[in-house]
Design goal:
By secondary structure, this protein is of the alpha/beta class. The chain is built from ten helices and 14 strands. Helices cover 32% and strands 27% of the residues.
């Protein structure tokens, strides 16, 4: 990943959005996106993800605050800022009667870019759309239409790509292909900002993760650090004999019985000085509880996210 000492490619300061009804969609957002990273923005429905993206892309006007895109103010220098950005919206919007090739060419022209058939061909081939270039949009599947949206967003060679729920309704194979394209773009220096409901995607793809809830950014963290700090490990012991209840002497460990009393689960903090496992084994032996096997697993990003949002509810 690119060194953090470079100036951020997107800088958001004190950004707020309130509607005439009084609803506050965003509250005092401060956020910096690094050049060349994949940044995942996670949040429940209605958290403000799409509003934030829409403001950065110039589609919605902020109530307060400022946004700089590659050094350009999105209000004072709108054209320069917008030319740096490609946006793949959630909605499948495209001219149904146009062909794939014509749609992507037209999108490039909207940004005042000269025709570049080599670039358009490369984008379509990267997205497995070249064979469909003469097909009308209306004849394509939902997954293919979403690929066309990505091709349109890449037509003018943006340095920043926003993907708003890019794989919603896309089958698993298409999703995998799409992420290969995203990784290749990141490797070529494009900054990727994505919102997704598929938290496992963020876990696999992102360099950093931001969590937004009720219009506020509640956390921004390196993915690896977030997993390390907030992750808990589970130790599952497969018992030799079925257990009806956890003995009182073991209450301090807050053990859970599962699999019909044949498994005991111990959850511990990976950051704690002592995990307590050695003491647990000793106390289990004293209680006459024997186990034949054990394994550990770590909290997924999904569990961390759910706990974070629940904590702010």
């Amino acid at each position: 990943m690119v060194a953090c000492s470079m100036p951020p490619v997107i800088s958001i300061s004190r950004l707020s959005k309130a509607y005439a009804s009084g609803f506050e969609a965003l509250r005092t957002i401060d956020l910096e996106i690094r050049r060349g990273e994949i940044f995942a923005l996670l949040g429940p429905n209605g958290a403000g993800k799409t509003t934030l993206i829409s403001i950065i892309c110039g589609l919605v006007k902020a109530s307060k605050g400022s946004v700089q895109v590659d050094g350009h103010d999105i209000v004072k220098d709108y054209r320069a800022a917008r030319s740096k950005i490609g946006l793949v919206p959630q909605e499948l919007t495209a001219d149904a009667f146009e062909t794939v090739l014509a749609t992507v060419r037209f999108s490039r022209g909207l940004f005042g870019k000269r025709a570049n058939e080599d670039h358009i061909e490369k984008v379509l081939k990267d997205l497995s759309l070249w064979d469909k270039r003469d097909s009308k949009i209306m004849t394509l599947s939902g997954g293919m239409k979403r690929r066309v949206l990505i091709a349109k967003a890449l037509s003018h060679e943006p340095q920043i790509l926003f993907l708003d729920e890019p794989t919603a309704g896309v089958d698993v194979e298409l999703r995998r292909d799409m992420w290969q394209v995203v990784r290749a773009l990141r490797d070529s220096g494009v900054t990727i900002i994505l919102t997704t409901h598929y938290i496992e995607e963020a876990e696999e793809m992102a360099d950093r993760i931001g969590v937004i809830n009720k219009g506020e950014i509640i956390l921004v963290e390196e993915k690896a650090e977030l997993m390390r700090k907030l992750g808990k490990k589970r130790l599952t012991l497969h018992l030799l004999a079925k257990l009806d209840a956890i003995p009182e002497a073991l209450a301090p460990y807050r053990l859970d019985l599962s699999a019909g009393g044949t498994e005991v689960i111990y959850t511990y903090d990976t950051q704690a000085e002592r995990t307590g496992i050695t003491a647990l084994f000793k106390d289990l032996a004293n209680a006459g509880i024997r186990f034949k096997d054990l394994h550990t697993d770590q909290s997924s990003l999904e569990e961390i996210f759910v706990n974070l949002v629940r904590g702010r509810a």
